[in-house]
Amino acid sequence: MPLAIGQRVKAELSGTELHVLRKLGEGTQGEVYLVEGPQGYQAVKWYKPEQATAEQRSAILYLVRTGPPFGAAGRRFIWPLDLVTREGSGQFGYLMARIDTQKFAELGEVWAHLKPVPNFSSLSEISYQLANSYRALHLSGHCYRDISAGNLMFEPVSGDILICDNDNVGVNRQSRCQVWGTMEYMAPEIIRGEADPSTQTDLHSLAILLFYLWVWHHPFHGEMEYRFHCWDIPAKKKVYGETPIFVFDPENPDNRLPTDPDYGIARERWSLCPTDLQDMFIRAFTDGLKDPSRRVTEGEWQNLFSRIKDRIISCPRCRAENFLDLSGNPGTCWNCSTSLPHPPFLVVRRHSAETFIALSNGTTLRRRHVTLSPANDDGSAIIGIVVPHPAIPGASGIRNATRAPWNAEFPDGSKSVVPPGRAIPLNPGAAIMIDGVTITITAPDSMVTP
């Protein structure tokens, strides 16, 4: 039975009582309620009778006692906090943090124009954090088993994410699960009955979710899907599992996008993807379909999205974000066709490697740029941001967004300290030292190709 408003339920491990305030939503496994207890407002997922099995109860207790992956990557998971029961009932649920649905959006809300569309910088950060968190989960020995857009929420401006519905997480290739995923995200070998969910099948689901985020389309929805008059289970098995073909497969044209205008958005958004992102998607949905061992890993996705974010500049005319190509050429703005100027760059020299970050107002310098392996951190914290000069039109500087001062050195040999909250002008040849790493501001005409 569903929970009643005003009813009291119990968090078993802590022994605390929770007051049911209102229903927040409903899914295939159960309902979600807003509750109040000693920790303030939280949420409870309450399983339907057929889902409240002994195996699911054991799975929740395991997740509560194990906890989420360590560090910032793990904090993005809305993890089960406690088992929740009701006196006199065999049903149960679990306690979790409440999500601020005014701040965080689902992809469907963006498509319906209910929430803002993330720009390329935010989309790169969403994708980076998504890959980073699933990498942490997989390294902890677990698989998610139900990666989909329905389990992702994101802040459209900052790119911060939350991963919901973690009650189906289990030990890779060991623990059983009542849910095998959403069919449009399932790996083909699961649909064909050849494999169980695992970290390897998670990689396929992650690639599909990333494709949805960037292209707003399913990678296998082309002529094959278009020709089906009845989009039923056999049709889905055919397209997703038996003969899946990527709509942008460069070698196989059998499932290209139809000429129907309904497919125009997918075609346009694909054309806006950087070539290295397109190449990664092609690999994921060609080589990765034929051989699961050749799927794109979370670490590869993570590194890619960090790199392409560093190549984003804003159009000086319309402010639309654009990607520099792999040679550092800005080209023309995709939105207004303005010829884009060559931007200045930050050159981050760390050990034997160099990272190039294209600069325009709003560009961020993150902890991952200066720290090789952040301890207990994913490196996404902003440590510097490019801001316009308050008095000089067209001039900009990079503001210290940390709590510690920076040391700066200028081409004439002079030095200064940049306290937190203050900015250093983007003068070519100037250098900033952060945590022992030298960051140089490079003029456009002296840029080394990234």
Keywords:
13 helices; Phosphorylase Kinase, domain 1; alpha+beta; Transferase(Phosphotransferase), domain 1; 450 residues; six-stranded antiparallel β-barrel; six-stranded antiparallel sheet; single chain; 3 domains; Tumour Suppressor Smad4; disordered C terminus
Summarize the structure in words.
With 450 residues, the chain is an alpha+beta fold. The chain has 3 domains: 89 residues, Phosphorylase Kinase, domain 1 (2-Layer Sandwich); 197 residues, Transferase(Phosphotransferase) domain 1 (Transferase(Phosphotransferase), domain 1, Orthogonal Bundle), CATH 1.10.510.10; 106 residues, Tumour Suppressor Smad4 (Sandwich), CATH 2.60.200.20. 26% of the residues lie in helices and 23% in strands. The protein has a 6-stranded antiparallel beta barrel with strand order 1-2-3-4-6-5. A 6-stranded antiparallel beta sheet has the order 14-13-22-21-18-19, with no helix packed on it. A hairpin with a 5-residue loop joins strand 18 and strand 19. Helix 4 packs antiparallel against helix 6 and helix 4 packs antiparallel against helix 12. The radius of gyration is 24 Å and the shape is globular.
